[in-house]
Amino acid sequence: MAALRLALAQYDFPVGAVAANTAKVHELMTRARAGDASLVVFPELTISGYPPEDLLLRPSFLAACEDAMQELAAETNGLTAIVGFPHSLGEVYNAAAFLRGGQIMQITHKQILPNYGVFDDKRYFRPGRTGAVAIVDGVRVGYLICEDIWQAEPAAAVAAAGAELIVVINASPWDAAKQQAREEVLAERAKETGCAVVYLNLVGGQDEVVYDGGSLLVNADGSIAARAPSFVDALLWADFDPTDRTLHALDWPTVPDTSHEATLYAALVRGIRDYIDKNGFGGVLLGLSGGIDSALTLALAVDALGPDRVTAVMMPMRYTSQLSLEGARGQAERLGVEYHVLGIEPTYDAFMTALTPLFQGKKPDTTEENLQSRTRGVMLMALSNKHGRLLLATGNKSEMAVGYATLYGDMCGAYAPLKDVYKTEVYRLSRWRNTSQARHTGQSDDWVIPPAVIERPPSAELRDNQTDQDSLPPYDELDAILARFIEDEQSQAEIIAAGFNENTVHRVVRLVLVNEFKRRQAAPGPRVTTRAFGRERRYPITSGWK
């Protein structure tokens, strides 16, 4: 029997963009037909985008998705397609439609509805009862939806129904541990069922979630036949040989660096680009302090949008060091962004003059330090409003965890690229970006982030000779404790038993718990760990549990 030619649409299908998504499906179907594909496959909820959230409660939205499916079905002469969409039958199902011969031949519904982490499927969907098997050019193809492949029963059912090849359409968000977990699960399903597996995943940023693509071909013996690159939009061609149930990628794109740092950096870049572009902003603005967080944020923004769409503003105060001034200017000039220096001293003094009568009898404390940050926040927001450029917040996950951030100050912004990136990871990413730049240009001393900024002790520069470690444990120690408490949900006793100082653990955990109210007011940012603040980690602000 001849090989079955497949085209896999690893593309971004934005939430709510029903007309645009339908047009993209039509375009890709045309390309698949021209390339002699027998079957073209699209991701989970292609038509609505994923996750559509409460758009699914609007009858007009569901009707538009249904109309789109009928339109696409009419265009399938000479081609078979599997397309994800929300299927309304009084109740709503996460569905995959099998389109052929100008009509919808079959519809299957997602059976396993995830309701953990960023997933909230049970709020919107009813579970399906079974997968489906269809014949394409003599090959029996079973098709499932995302979470269904993570459990043994749905795959076993389509195999029992005669499937030789299982196609799984997905909207699976990226995190640092996800790809290995996917490969292990898919290999297990293939070996259990004796079926080859095609795993097609969505790509793109959606609010706080980034989808990486990273689609996979898995042979029936569980071996990985091909890995698609992460964060790359592509129509992926593959052949399935039914005689030995193997899959063969045809000229899949590659990326030069697949390290953890390279993939994480690509995730952050994609998150920024899609958030800005999908929300219709012409560009971004950020406060460039001369510190490592804002320096990395600037590099990410330029890589995501280009220098013409990025404005950086240095806002010095009497405590701002010469190193900060030189580092910020040097980086802005090297990256070619619009750059301004706007001193805050006169504005800060005006605030202090107004407040002094009510501050009498009180000693200076963090109030005055926070007022510097809030002065910057007010001015940056004014510039954002006036110039129509979205303000990026530059804080990292370590700071957000322990509340080392100022509400209405450095927390100002509409998007926070480093919100889910620990400080130690900020350093690794910054060094990686410089190494990548030097490798690209062939100049060993080339850089994107000033080396002096990377090597200096971190400081908010809100008073003389201040460093972060005046208030916090060293970041290596802090981040290790935070990862155990946040990602691993370990108790304080377990963390202490692992060898961490008891007083430090109690102090760090207390800071995490009492600063939940700040995190509720933080800007969204891309989720890149297994336990991000926001929609994934939802702790009560008011709680007696310590």
Description:
- GO terms for molecular function: NAD+ synthase (glutamine-hydrolyzing) activity.
- It comes from Dyella caseinilytica.
- Keywords: ATP-binding, Ligase, NAD, Nucleotide-binding.
- ATP binds at residues 287-294, 394.
- In the C-terminal section; belongs to the NAD synthetase family.
- This protein is of the alpha/beta class.
- The protein has 2 domains: 4-255, Nitrilase/N-carbamoyl-D-aminoacid amidohydrolase (4-Layer Sandwich); 261-467, HUPs (Rossmann fold, 3-Layer(aba) Sandwich).
- 38% of the residues lie in helices and 19% in strands.
- The chain contains 17 helices and 19 strands.
- It has helices at residues 18-34, 59-73, 121-124, 152-160, 178-193, 260-278, 292-305, 322-335, 345-359, 366-387, 397-402, 423-441, 451-455, 475-486, 492-497, 502-514, 516-519; strands spanning 4-10, 39-41, 80-89, 91-100, 103-109, 132-136, 139-145, 165-170, 196-201, 203-206, 209-212, 216-218, 224-227, 234-241, 246-250, 284-287, 310-314, 338-341, 390-391.
- It has a 7-stranded mixed β-sheet, with helices on one face.
- A hairpin with a 2-residue loop joins strand 6 (132-136) and strand 7 (139-145).
- The longest helix is centred in the C-terminal third of the chain and has 22 residues, at 366-387.
- The chain is elongated, with a radius of gyration of 26 Å.
- It starts with a strand and ends in a 27-residue tail after the last helix.
- The mean pLDDT is 94.
